[in-house]
């Protein structure tokens, strides 16, 4: 059987070129072997993984490609797949150039209409980066746990079921429990019996309000002593605004509370001796960190402490004798005066009033205050005074926000930077090699093939950048696109990926309504959702694709207008409400380690949002899941596929005496740069890393140094700094696939930067400009 007919048999008669294009766009290696375990199809990623030409793999047996030892391990699973059983396994693989990597592999039996197994589709996923990211995330979590554990306040994070996700060391020390006992103890048992009923009621009401709330009461410490704690709890919301738990902190206010209670007692027992005790009361009053003010029931300031803050007037005593809302401090913040007036009126009626306000001045950061007004009753039960307290919560809230957000963003940034660098290095070799073939090919047919491959590689470079859409917020190639025909063209691919055990239903709108979307990203999103649905239906089921036109007028995420709704529904296991609420979070996955990165659904959501639409999930346990994607109707006509020959760049002309030193740790990238510059007539020397580059630089000073930025041991920035120190004004051209170009320019502000991947002509033009 020839390679072409085998491929057509695999594709089932559909447009094989399109399937090959889609398969080559996928980042994971994919291959097909027949019953004799010979390769009949591989995508571009599989050939690159084995570092062989596709033609060198096709027709060969698995044992020839993998070697006897690796084949012996996989042979039982290959035989089981030929018997019709889908296989999955994870393993470590010693890659010839990349070293040890972690892989997960699936063997999918492919059958004919009679159920006979024709061969096996092999899907390989490299999960090395995921595991590195997981390790980095764990390190980040440990670092931020240390920060929280060094905080002088008690801190905790809870889920909706009240289980603690995290408590700091101050929490454990106060409670006198071990960390493994956190989810078995009951915090209500610590509350003083006189405060219990009030605090439980305030806690329930505060959580129901979905607003920050505070509690104050006596808690039994591990040594048996009761201490006054003031806690502030804030709700935690998911990416779609759903409540997922609470984050809180508490600090010991025993000294302040004792002073407050003592002050209340003195006020109730106010006598002629009040003047004599002024100094003693003042000392207690002024020792309290919070701002405390004693008011008449009508709001007149009777007494106050002199605690210094950055939001209070310089001389607090100016407020004595004035109404609180007319005091100098509130004159500076007039927007809060009506609220304070209403709060005083409520406290005068015997109510405890508590709220948060933000004190903001132009050009200064805002200060968040927790305000409380407590009535003080006399012997007859009538309110005789009101105690006003203001506590600064700004730093506490800032610490809570850092604890909640820093870990996720740090891990995400490290992951995307590494991916961009590695992929751009790889594509530089592919694009550069094909470009050299085009320049040197004497056979017109070979040149045409090379040009076609070069265009495909450059589209792959764009695709690599687009795959980072969610985490890097990169711009997609959004254009008018028909959704229904796109899904129709994916039917054969979906049939092969999903297998015969899953029924496929298509209810596609026949009206040709274009939407604004990136076609390649939309195809990858649909494929991602189909694979997720397949994993949710291990025993088989039904997957339904539906498109319809809908008009949206009042949606918080979408602008009013006409949209196309693409819904993909399965009859699988479904999701719990907690899982559904977090499904679009980056790195969140319910699959076991090694079977999922947690980036699939977040990428789908990012594509929809960057296209002007959104994505939503509906699911119930045991009843299946529906993902709905909304895309804005396009006003313009549908355009053709992107691509075409790139604009020609005038080749750089060699300087006969120009000496160029190339420093790059990647052998293939360095070889392409050296070959391209030699073709242009330059005298080229090369170095495998920064240390060797400095040796060559000192042996004979070059006219230009072509320098990779990211290298082991000595980075490009360090090498450039040393060279400039030894020879000021040395011409340097950075080449890099690293995403943080600001850091590259900081290393040598006047040096040129050529981003990877690039063609030989672009390299020549950059070299000529650097030498000018």
Summarize the structure.
With 772 residues, the protein is α+β, with helices and mostly antiparallel strands.
Topology:
Elements: H1 3-11, H2 16-25, E1 30-34, E2 39-42, H3 44-50, H4 54-57, H5 62-66, H6 68-82, E3 87-95, E4 99-111, E5 117-126, H7 128-149, E6 154-159, E7 164-167, H8 169-175, H9 193-209, E8 213-220, E9 226-237, E10 243-252, H10 254-268, H11 278-287, E11 291-295, E12 301-304, H12 328-332, H13 337-348, E13 353-359, E14 367-377, E15 383-392, H14 394-440, H15 444-466, H16 469-472, E16 479-482, H17 483-489, H18 491-498, E17 502-507, E18 514-517, H19 519-535, E19 541-552, E20 561-570, H20 577-582, H21 600-610, E21 614-620, E22 624-632, E23 659-663, H22 667-679, E24 683-687, H23 690-699, E25 704-708, H24 716-726, E26 732-736, H25 741-747, E27 752-755, H26 760-771
Parallel strand pairs: 17-19, 23-24, 23-25, 25-26, 26-27
Antiparallel strand pairs: 1-2, 1-5, 3-4, 4-5, 6-7, 6-10, 8-9, 9-10, 11-12, 11-15, 13-14, 14-15, 16-18, 19-20, 20-22, 21-22
EC number: 2.7.13.3
Protein name: histidine kinase
Domain Response regulatory: 659-771
Task: List the main descriptive attributes of the protein structure presented here.
772 residues, Beta-Lactamase, five-stranded antiparallel sheet, disordered N terminus
Query: What shape does the CA trace take?
Result: globular
* Adjacency order of strands in the biggest sheet: 2-1-5-4-3
Please indicate the percent range of residues in DSSP E strands (runs of 2 or more). Answer: 25-35%
Number of domains: 5
Separation of termini?
Answer: 59 Å
The chain-level mean pLDDT equals 78
Keywords: Phosphoprotein
Enzyme class: transferase
Domain Histidine kinase: 418-635
Modified residues (4-aspartylphosphate): 708
